[in-house]
Design brief:
Length: about 400
């Protein structure tokens, strides 16, 4: 029975089902589909998880009507098969303007205390998304000043009118900035990745990692490379917030990628954390990136300026920061854990084998995260598809 129920729900989520339940009237309990060892994500109290919101958010995430001229969706820069990264250093916006930074992967974004490469003030997904939608520096979806046009466009679609009604009965299905952003954020919180070989090796199956990956793991967590000073914990980053934690942890560091003037300056186009705080010591600091699915999320770093994982090690970290080999030498503002180390090609291959073990095939092929297509789901589920561990 349970299996059948799941199947039916999955079909409904896939957009093909003319099935089931009068959703709006049922009380909903959300169950996270996560392993028992993973803590639950934090959810803002004004946007509790509901399957109807997730289904609506998924449709919006893939909908190009969210851009001013119908050319871009969130999913244009965040591709599931690449762990929701983009595969390009920067992605042009709806008006063809070049982007400034690399679009980020979205696996486990629900666990982040702040969003984007270097902004501790953007603490919710609901707030973050206002940037791609409305910002003009650079233009991404290009909807700045056109909120009304966007909501009218969505209201014209009878499918959305119905989806918003079942997702937001308390708002009587109103299509507003609040309901649009809450729905997309709810979908983003379901983008959970805990099924990589590395997860299996940590939680029981010691055979999940190849001998090369195991050697790479030892190097990664060892004293020579020091990677795990910053890349640690649930998502291999020192930025985490979870329901079982009293305080979030945040980590912004200068890794010595640039040194434009001998005093540690980054290029004028992007000073990282300093742009937000105004503090000189924050020059070149960026948020430690999660390494989940990292084999798929290149090119690497905030500006996509390192093409391969090999170069992340060979041309950047092993030199004590890439700038060390440039005209102005080592960046004096770089983090104390960024120091040169000797590494052989065989050891680099082992570290890469370890990083490859962070790829979660079921995450990048999960049908619940894919483009739901144009078909309007005629009924929506009132509970999440599956799961252990209640919110
Ligand atoms: C034109 C490409 C583009 C589009 C379209 C786009 N994004 Fe992004 N996304 C980016 C870039 C670039 C960044 C990094 C921004 C920064 O650091 O300033 C990013 C960062 C993010 C992050 C932060 C992830 C993290 O780890 O902190 C989230 C979440 C996100 N985008 C969600 C969305 C959503 C939702 C939409 C649609 C409403 C969207 N994006 C549309 C390019 C895009
Ligand atoms: C001092 C903290 C720190 C240490 C030590 C560190 N990293 Fe990082 N890592 C970061 C930060 C911060 C970024 C983002 C930097 C940027 O974009 O400018 C990053 C980015 C990365 C990226 C790119 C991720 C992406 O999606 O673009 C990879 C890969 C990576 N680190 C691997 C490693 C490895 C391997 C080591 C050990 C050799 C290591 N890191 C050591 C802080 C650190």
């Amino acid at each position: 029975m349970r299996t059948l129920f799941r199947k039916v729900l999955q079909m409904a989520l896939l957009g093909g089902g003319a099935l089931l339940l009068s959703a709006a009237t049922r009380p909903t309990t959300w169950h996270w589909d996560i392993p028992s060892w993973a803590p639950a994500p934090v959810v803002p109290s004004d946007n509790p998880m509901r399957a109807e919101k997730v289904a609506l958010g998924r449709r919006l995430f893939y909908d190009k009507r969210l851009s001013e001229n119908g050319t871009l969706a969130c999913a244009s820069c965040h591709l599931q098969k690449l762990g929701f990264a983009s595969g390009v250093p920067t992605h042009v916006g709806a008006h063809g303007e070049p982007g400034l930074r690399t679009p980020m992967p979205l696996a486990n974004v629900a666990y982040l205390p702040s969003y984007t490469w270097a902004n501790p003030q953007l603490t919710t997904l609901e707030k973050q998304m206002l940037i791609p939608m409305f910002s003009d520096q650079p233009v991404e979806l290009g909807m700045g000043g056109q909120e009304k046009a966007l909501f009218a466009r969505l209201s014209d679609d009878p499918c959305y009118a119905r989806l918003f009604r079942v997702a937001f009965p308390e708002a009587k299905g109103a299509i507003t900035l609040s309901t649009v952003t809450k729905a997309i954020a709810s979908f983003e919180r379901t983008l959970l990745s805990f099924d990589s070989p590395y997860d299996h090796s940590l939680h029981g199956d010691k055979t999940a990692l190849s001998p090369a990956a195991q050697r790479g793991e030892a190097l990664f967590f060892g004293e020579k490379l020091e990677c795990s000073h910053c890349h640690n914990g649930l998502n291999l980053t020192d930025n985490i917030r979870a329901a079982n934690m009293p305080f979030p942890e945040t980590g912004f560091h200068n890794t010595g990628l640039y040194n434009e003037d001998g005093k540690g300056a980054y290029p004028a186009s992007d000073h990282g954390l300093r742009t937000v705080t105004g503090n000189a010591e924050d020059e070149g600091k960026f948020r430690t990136e999660s390494l989940r699915n990292v084999a798929l999320t290149g090119p690497y770093m905030h500006d996509g300026s390192i093409a391969t994982l090999h170069d992340v090690l060979a041309a950047h970290y092993s030199k004590g920061g890439r700038s060390a080999t440039g005209p102005h030498g080592e960046n004096p503002l770089r983090d104390q854990f960024i120091e040169p180390f000797d590494i052989s090609e065989a050891e680099i291959a082992d570290v890469i084998a370890f990083l490859n073990s962070l790829t979660d095939q079921s995450f990048i092929t999960n049908p619940a995260f894919s483009d739901p297509g144009k078909t309007c789901p005629l009924a929506l589920p009132s509970a999440s598809p599956s799961g252990k561990g209640a919110q």
